[in-house]
Input
Amino acid sequence: MTKKQNDISKTYIIIATIIGLAILGYGYMNYSAKMKVLESDKQAKELEIKKEKDNALNLQICLLKADTNKTDYWNKLCKSYGVNHKKDDCSLYQMHIDLVDNYLKNEQDQCYQLYK
Output
């Protein structure tokens, strides 16, 4: 092999190596970008699951508070009639029962609007 042919062969090897490295570099960058997207999607899903769990818990707390508020409202109405709700049975008029029920429904609706 002549020196000229040897130099040409070396040039081809260098060009082939550069092309190969460029292909590998592009493949790695593409792989790296896809992995970042997958990781980002995974984090977004985990965050969504956490948000759903938090909302479910907060909804239950809110509904419990609404029920407690309803009971307090009922007891205040009883007290306004001079009935001690701890000692006596408090039977309210239907009009007042409807008020208490509407109060509870409004509070529950607010909970569902906040946490659903």
About this structure: The chain has one domain: 3-115.
